[in-house]
Amino acid sequence: MAKRLGILTSGGDCPGLNAVIRGAVLKGDSVYGQEFVGFIDGWKGLVEGNAIPLDRRSVRGLSSQGGTIIGTSRVGPYREPDGGADNIRQRMKRLGIDGIIAIGGEGTANAAKRLFEDGVNIVGVPKTIDNDLAATDYTFGFSTAVEIATEAIDRLRTTGNSHKRCMVLEVMGRHAGWIALFSGIAGGAHAILIPEQPETIEQISEWVRSVVHRGRAPMVVVAEGFTFPDMDQAHSTKGLDGFNRPRLGGIGEVLAPLIEEHTGIETRATVLGHIQRGGAPSAFDRVLATRMGMAVSDLVADEGWGKMVALHGTDIVRVDFADALANLKTVPPQSYADYRQLFG
Amino acid sequence: MAKRLGILTSGGDCPGLNAVIRGAVLKGDSVYGQEFVGFIDGWKGLVEGNAIPLDRRSVRGLSSQGGTIIGTSRVGPYREPDGGADNIRQRMKRLGIDGIIAIGGEGTANAAKRLFEDGVNIVGVPKTIDNDLAATDYTFGFSTAVEIATEAIDRLRTTGNSHKRCMVLEVMGRHAGWIALFSGIAGGAHAILIPEQPETIEQISEWVRSVVHRGRAPMVVVAEGFTFPDMDQAHSTKGLDGFNRPRLGGIGEVLAPLIEEHTGIETRATVLGHIQRGGAPSAFDRVLATRMGMAVSDLVADEGWGKMVALHGTDIVRVDFADALANLKTVPPQSYADYRQLFG
Amino acid sequence: MAKRLGILTSGGDCPGLNAVIRGAVLKGDSVYGQEFVGFIDGWKGLVEGNAIPLDRRSVRGLSSQGGTIIGTSRVGPYREPDGGADNIRQRMKRLGIDGIIAIGGEGTANAAKRLFEDGVNIVGVPKTIDNDLAATDYTFGFSTAVEIATEAIDRLRTTGNSHKRCMVLEVMGRHAGWIALFSGIAGGAHAILIPEQPETIEQISEWVRSVVHRGRAPMVVVAEGFTFPDMDQAHSTKGLDGFNRPRLGGIGEVLAPLIEEHTGIETRATVLGHIQRGGAPSAFDRVLATRMGMAVSDLVADEGWGKMVALHGTDIVRVDFADALANLKTVPPQSYADYRQLFG
Amino acid sequence: MAKRLGILTSGGDCPGLNAVIRGAVLKGDSVYGQEFVGFIDGWKGLVEGNAIPLDRRSVRGLSSQGGTIIGTSRVGPYREPDGGADNIRQRMKRLGIDGIIAIGGEGTANAAKRLFEDGVNIVGVPKTIDNDLAATDYTFGFSTAVEIATEAIDRLRTTGNSHKRCMVLEVMGRHAGWIALFSGIAGGAHAILIPEQPETIEQISEWVRSVVHRGRAPMVVVAEGFTFPDMDQAHSTKGLDGFNRPRLGGIGEVLAPLIEEHTGIETRATVLGHIQRGGAPSAFDRVLATRMGMAVSDLVADEGWGKMVALHGTDIVRVDFADALANLKTVPPQSYADYRQLFG
């Protein structure tokens, strides 16, 4: 019998969320006769029973639209007093919902795994703009963020050259430096600083000086989660992992004056921020998100509860929540070393 | 001992050629002490011994530049009287070239395979904007073409809606419909017509009528290599494959008046043409091209003559020319069927 | 007393139409308590009494949207049997409409002038993507078209350079060459061909040869309305103005093979077409269109029937329909000569 | 007799500088036989006699390139010991320079005026990305900055909507709010805060609450020079003008937490920064800059020392330095009031 499904989007905004919703609704409706509702503002809507119907007409033209028409929040499903698996199963029963499609990141996958173990029919679509989920080659939103960051580098370079300045661009990437690595390679950055690979301010300054020595204006891309061991106490506070983190503002804003101080080269920081996660998705992300939406409709039709869709090579496959969560996908040391080799 | 290598780019222009050259030169210089020259205008430069030195300075800032600084042409290496393996080996000897890096499409791979079999030290980097080489998940340039085609669809849709017209966009894709499929999904096209899947004008008109019936302006994306069995003799000439091809202009220009005639719905065609293969590459293509350039430097260092670099999943791997050429990578019927399911 | 107004958009699609509608509705509602309806598909909707209410909510988010939410067509208001000033006045009375806001080009302005003379309360907003209305410094849509054409030139140039080809881009401009002139200057074209300035194929070929002689790949931008006196009979048909026009396809498609034939230089044409008039408007056009929408709300409040809004310098002013229609704004010979001087 | 001219670019980077240089060199060479050198890094290069030749070949392809190939700095011409009119005249004599073309902002115009009064042959091209020079309708670079800021607003809005957050975007505009006004109108911002019009945090919070009340996510655009009278002492320091300025970071970063505190609505700030002044110019800016470059070549040919080129309507005209400097062009209260009326 055709199923009735509830979709929710959780966590930070990400280009492609709407395309996933559209892909699931169009294929589900056409092929399986599935019906859909959208829970408003993520798990909150599920827990509170706040849902709107999602039919073909509601998803028209959505592939090119950034954001999510059903809203998102950072609330989790186990919050008191209305959350938890029992409450959610009752809520689903009352709304006539056969299963949940949860589109979200690591936190969502963890919650979904627990709900599944507690007997809730749930499947997932991985969402992380940082591209740091191990189970999938790429996540939608990442390509858009990289395109935006690369355009920013292209723009900053001309100004760096005009003024003979060092330009620092801070991009997203809390635990993994994929956006920094990809945009840095695409934009021809001279230094790419990522959370996986702490570097001393001495090393960074050495790189910057060497670029200036070759007659060029240094372009540094730094992921927000990058830290350096010798960040002094005036600028930092020690994190739980033992590394120092910036006390105020972003790492780019801490780094730029330190580079200037160590090298004598005028240095300016730009923090790209939320611009990376909004607006129209790249075509690549629209296709990936649409395919994931279509595939999750298949997954539900097969009652593949407890699984997520993922990209392997050019194929959309299915993985267990547990596998998806086993490891954070960070930049391998060899990939980082390869990039460094460009600069001898 | 460090090698001296000649790079050539052959066939149609493609965003990312310069990034490949830069990746090879930077890594080859930094890691292996390789030296490079560029043959001017593809095989022609090799055959005629027309080459320029390529050092670090020559490739500065190239990752973001479209085109190829060493030029390209459609000339092959076996042309008389200066071509052929013997002449080319002598030419290489005179120029002190240890090996050739040939960046090109199917024709180039075929020629490179034959040269390799004739004893020339040669490796390859696959280049096809149509993404139709079987040995690699994606080729650089394809992502850029898809982004450009998708932006064109986004623009044409608003005009289609304003005028209640059917809009037809012809994109590249002579033997494979990847650009049409990806940009069509990304842009939410109502019909995607590809070389792999002939459709009658009756079927196409039926789709168009059904979109109008749902109150929308039909958006049709058609790959240049698409044909339809019932194309009448006034518009077509029969190809060697038995299918009809447009007599004049592109398939989009043949299709639009036929759709208008069959449906009574005002229909306009746009042929995107060369815009798809020029200009700044997308960030995705810059990264892929840079990585392929770096990997071909490794390949040469390992004396992996007779092989090409390729993308498998997220890895750059090595494949034999023969494997690369075994099959054209066309859109699988299932992928096409999946897309059709979006529209019930 | 607050007025009730009917808005219509007529003629070819143009980026900024929606922003005009939004500007008029928001200001009219906020400042004057005006009410609005939109006539569907231009004059057709007025003549047939087909209208939808336009309130603040209907115009949300419209400044960035291409196209027109009320549709457009090329139908005029004097068509039989329902058109004409008498019928329209009756129609307005029945719908309780105090005045018409007609957004359109020369045809619309002519019709509006006649309706005004026949006693209909009507005001206008000039719309021509070709920028050829004399009464206004710029029309919205023009800037967007120029940006799109310039990006196309940027892309085509790299391919021209890679292949040492002459690239021909046909842009819009039936009677005036503004899009060709602006995009050609912005893109650094070597020849800009406009309707106002016929040139022989001999002269054009001379320019192309001279560019090749300087070691560059020629970039030619041609407005769709350009003609050359020596276009031969195989390619042309004589227009009412005595000049020859292409028999089939666009002027770019006629020109390219002729250039190739006369110069021996490989030449390729691209016809940009409808892409120029769809999609998101440039910021400049959004501002201009919004300001014109706001100003037309003022104009109606002042009962300035028979007038249009226009841009003079940085100011939005009011002009009579008659003044707006007195002359087509074509590229002055001096401006064209100035551009030619760049190439000595 | 044909003149030999020195060009310099001074102050902050600005899209279009290279197009001005190209326009002057191409026209000067073609029409007047003028010769050009470029002083490296602004006035510094003039004072120190550091110059490079600028011929047709040096300016190839420059119309689309951001930055300035001759560098820029914030150094002035009267610095000791090598500056001052006497030294500069001697320097010009030794280099055989007949006149100076100074491309720069208010500081440059002031210095040029003084040099002219001290007997130096000098003309100017106005450059301010903030568009705040009274003598010209628009300055090049402004359009590019507005396009970039508008794209940022488009992106931030989707994220604001997804999270029901208030998004604050800080754009450039130290003394004049033109970028904020134009991008805010183009992007449909709900509040635009400019230096010319201080507003209390209470008023801003009232606007934000009212937008949320209408069910939308508030978008606030703030110019970097905006201040509010009730900025508390923890966040501000009093400027010479008696207004408070942010103590640390940009005004956007001060404003966002205050809005959140006053309204209870989650609020996030993005500071666009240097991205606004780098990279490829918009087509509009390329045309304006090219025309100004061409016009300054005419101005020099006419020995119009002591004057600048400027845009009036669609014409390039000449103005005295003194007139250009008489007033800062700020946003008129009426324009600001007009925009406010959109929101009733």
Automatic annotation (TrEMBL), chains A, B, C, D:
Keywords: ATP-binding, Cytoplasm, Glycolysis, Kinase, Magnesium, Metal-binding, Nucleotide-binding, Transferase. The active site is at 130 (proton acceptor). Its EC number is 2.7.1.11. Residues 4-299 form the Phosphofructokinase domain. One of its GO terms (biological process) is fructose 6-phosphate metabolic process. ATP binds at residues 12, 74-75, 105-108. One of its GO terms (molecular function) is ATP binding. It comes from the Bacteria. SUPFAM superfamilies: Phosphofructokinase. Mg(2+) binds at residue 106. It catalyses: beta-D-fructose 6-phosphate + ATP = beta-D-fructose 1,6-bisphosphate + ADP + H(+). Pfam families: PFK (PF00365). Belongs to the phosphofructokinase type A (PFKA) family. Mixed-substrate PFK group III subfamily. This is ATP-dependent 6-phosphofructokinase. The gene is pfkA.
